[in-house]
Specification:
Elements lengths: L2 H7 L2 H19 L6 H4 L3 H9 L4 E6 L5 E4 L1 H6 L21 H14 L3 E7 L7 E11 L5 E10 L1 H15 L9 H14 L7 E9 L1 H8 L1 H17 L6 E6 L2 E7 L4 H15 L3 E3 L2 E3 L2 E8 L6 H18 L3 E4 L2 H20 L5 E10 L5 E12 L3 E3 L1 H10 L3 H22 L6 E5 L2 H5 L3 H12 L6 E6 L6 H5 L2 H7 L3 E7 L6 H6 L4 E4 L1 H5 L5 H16 L3 E5 L4 H9 L4 E3 L7 E2 H8 L12
Parallel strand pairs: 11-12, 14-16, 16-17, 17-18, 18-19, 19-20, 20-21
Antiparallel strand pairs: 1-2, 1-5, 3-4, 4-5, 6-8, 6-11, 7-8, 9-10, 13-14, 13-21, 13-22, 14-15
Length: about 600
């Protein structure tokens, strides 16, 4: 008698009893029934009631030809079968068509090998919603090792699968753009680099950073910023070829993996498409905004890791950003050396102030007509015992990046005011001013005004003897430009100077809006004063218009007699530069410019 005939001739209770008596610990462990004598003697009828009340688990009993012998109420619920007696229905119809073969093969192997089969599969009942189930199969044999039936349990795991999928998306995809994130990018890069470990230039990594995004995000809000990022992500995707990978690393940074097959021109073409696409205006909620892209490009080399390739492209991007916006830079070894040096400097910065490595030097400012000292500019200098003297152009940006500019800037302001007050006491015949540079970050510190008052009070310096130098870009800052901060500083008696005038966003309208006292002509105009007539015209126009607005004009970077003569002829007020002196230590400055003997010609400086 085969198993199907066996099933048809036995009553349901007898079948259940037979399966129950032969199922052993496998089924009882499924039902979490304790293995004690009393519960092993449970009746078949009670056993069937237990099966029918397992809503979360469906039980199917089949023969070796996959014909259904018994289904529990839980299975009928999962399979959306209405008939209470489902033995004659084809249970396989409820299994997803792509999973049926795997399930039946698993059943067959379990019977042949006397093992347990476990898998996850999908149920797709007619007219029902697809569900994921965990399938566990246990073959049942009698005392003579003859096959009786196969017991399959199906547990609904749809919610756990959805939770796992959601966790996977969070782990490997950016929540805003749905692009791969850094983790998935690293995984894909690792695989691609391992495919051709000895081949150079088969991959290019393009590192993309948006210029101007932070200003837009801070000014117009994060919601608009998110929509801008989303629009840019669509544009970037359109710039890539099929098979290339676009990922978002965070904030305004993206990467693109380009399959260039030893053809670097493909990466360059992709970079140009990206820069062209990004710089197109974006209109969101009637706001039209503009951003550009700074791009770094690195090519795969033998033995390079995924992290190394990303780091190289990042270094190249940073170099591009330093040059100008909307440009691309290829990685080379020099950039790594520069970056390591920059990292070393950055590390040393944190202890420079406490180790007294910073010094304030002073560059004289002289009256153009009389050539007498009228003031000085305080300039920060850094000499480290390990690496020597470090240029301000290197460490000042790092101070801002590392969040140290407020602390160091306050120290420079305090030192300068104390020194100027001391000079006034020791050399009363020279009531000069002291000019100190202030960054936008310092002005964003809401305690800046209070700190300024405290420094003036503690140093004893008269406010009118202090000049704070601001760059033109500060006046475009919403917080500084639209607040009353500059007016409150001016109300103290402190003078304000507009530094590097004419190089950035300079506009004489700023001079009407803000209480600016001094205009400093940028040294680039002075250096090229005789290179073309335009520079002469710009310089003389700045002097004339500034005088009409009642401003004092200072020329910086005056290094030659010819330059000084030109400025004298056009009635510039004050000059500073190497013609008189570099920035020098306080003691040298006092000895050279503040002693009673100081009435000298600039040619002797």
């Amino acid at each position: 008698m085969n198993s199907l005939e066996f099933a048809r001739t036995k009553t349901r209770p007898n079948l259940i009893r037979s399966i129950w008596s032969k199922s052993g610990t496998a089924l009882r462990s499924l039902l979490n029934i304790a293995n004690n004598r009393q519960q092993r003697e449970i009746s078949a009828a009670t056993f069937e009631r237990i099966l029918d009340n397992l809503d979360c688990t469906g039980v199917v009993v089949i023969d070796q030809n996959h014909n259904c012998i018994y289904t529990s109420r839980g299975w009928r619920k999962l399979a959306a079968v209405d008939c209470a007696d489902a033995c004659d229905s084809d249970w396989l119809e409820a299994i997803h068509v792509n999973d049926r073969s795997r399930v039946t093969t698993g059943f067959d192997n379990a019977i042949q090998q006397h093992t347990v089969f476990h898998a996850e599969c999908r149920l797709q009942p007619a007219g029902g919603q697809q569900r994921w189930v965990s399938c566990r199969t246990q073959p049942i044999f009698n005392d003579n090792n003859k096959f009786i039936a196969c017991l399959g349990s199906f547990t609904d795991i749809t919610e756990s699968r959805q939770a796992s999928a959601s966790l996977l998306r969070l782990s490997f995809y950016d929540t805003l753009t749905r692009l791969p994130n850094r983790s998935l990018l690293m995984h894909r890069l690792h695989e691609l680099l391992n495919e051709s470990p000895k081949q150079d230039n088969h991959l290019a990594l393009i590192f993309i950073d948006l210029d101007g995004f932070k200003l837009i995000n801070d000014t117009l809000g994060h919601e608009l910023g998110d929509r801008l990022i989303l629009e840019i992500s669509y544009r970037l995707a359109d710039c890539l070829a099929p098979g290339d990978t676009l990922a978002r690393l965070g904030s305004d940074e993206f990467t693109a993996v380009i399959h260039c097959a030893d053809n670097p021109a493909l990466a360059e073409k992709a970079a140009r498409r990206i820069m062209a696409a990004v710089k197109e205006p974006v209109t969101i909620n009637d706001e039209t905004v503009y951003v550009t892209a700074s791009i770094g490009i690195a090519f795969s080399k033998k033995g390079i890791s995924a992290d190394g390739l990303i780091r190289q492209a990042d270094i190249a991007m940073y170099d591009a950003k330093k040059t100008t916006s909307n440009t691309a830079q290829y990685y080379n070894r020099r950039l790594t050396a520069d970056n390591r040096a920059r990292l070393t400097v950055s590390s040393l910065l944190h202890s420079a102030l406490s180790q007294n490595e910073f010094k304030v030097h002073y560059q004289p400012q002289l009256d153009i007509q009389s050539n007498t000292i009228v003031g000085s500019e305080a300039l920060l200098r850094w000499h480290n015992p390990e690496v020597g003297t470090i240029s301000p152009s290197v460490f000042i940006p790092l101070l801002e990046e590392r969040g140290l500019i407020n602390q160091v800037g306050e120290w420079v302001l305090s030192q300068s005011c104390q020194m100027q007050s001391k000079w006034h006491c020791e050399y009363p015949q020279h009531l000069t001013t002291i000019s100190v540079n202030v960054s936008s970050i310092q002005l964003h510190d809401r305690t800046f005004l209070r700190k300024l008052k405290d420094i003036l009070e503690s140093s004893g310096l008269q406010p009118e003897c202090l000049v704070l130098e601001l760059t033109e870009s500060i006046l475009l800052d919403d917080y500084v430009g639209d607040s009353r901060l500059l007016h409150e500083i001016s109300a103290l008696g402190v003078k304000l100077a507009l530094d590097d005038f004419g190089t950035g966003y300079g506009s004489f309208s700023y001079l009407k809006k803000h209480p600016i006292d001094h205009i400093k002509i940028d040294r680039s105009f002075i250096d090229n004063l005789f290179a073309c007539d335009k520079n002469k015209a710009i310089t003389t126009s700045i002097i004339d218009l500034s005088h009409k607005l009642g401003k004092t004009v200072v020329a910086e970077g005056v290094d030659s007699h010819e330059e000084l003569n030109f400025l004298t002829m056009h009635k510039c007020d004050i000059y500073q530069g190497f013609l008189s002196s570099r920035a020098i230590p306080a003691a040298d400055f006092a000895r050279k410019y503040l002693t009673s003997q100081h009435v000298r010609e600039y040619t002797a400086a």
